[in-house]
Amino acid sequence: MPYRTEWEEPELFLEHKGVKVYRAYKDADADRPLTYWYAIYPGGDTTDEDDASQFDIRECPSYDAKLPARTNLVNAIEQGALLPTGPTWAT
């Protein structure tokens, strides 16, 4: 039976100081949001490991496993580690 796959905007997870952080999804499947991976640009494809718009928050130097993801992301933005163009620690 045929099926249709349609583009769906990723969920805006956080916006802080002009930085928009979107959820990233396993295999670009909207039903499979990733826990630690996020994207700066909507439309980033999680199947491309070289996609500079996506990052693993656990790699941020200020990451604290005891804090919620939102707090870690805000801290990264406040410290200048996460910019509207992407993470600075991954470059």
Care to describe what's here?
By secondary structure, this protein is mainly beta. It is 11% helix and 29% strand. Strands 1-2-3-4 form a four-stranded antiparallel β-sheet. The chain is elongated. Residues 44-49 have low confidence and may be disordered.
Shape: elongated
Give the N-terminus to C-terminus distance in angstroms.
45 Å
Number of DSSP strand runs:
6
For the largest sheet, list the strands in their spatial order.
1-2-3-4
Q: What is the succession of H and E elements?
A: EEEEHEE
Which structural class should the secondary elements be placed in? mainly beta
Q: What share of residues is helical?
A: 10-25%
Radius of gyration over all CA atoms, rounded: 14 Å
Give the count of helical stretches. 1
Strand portion: 25-35%
Biggest sheet: strands, sense, closure?
4 strands, antiparallel
**Unreliable stretches covering 5 or more consecutive residues:** 44-49
Taking all residues together, what is the mean pLDDT? Answer: 83
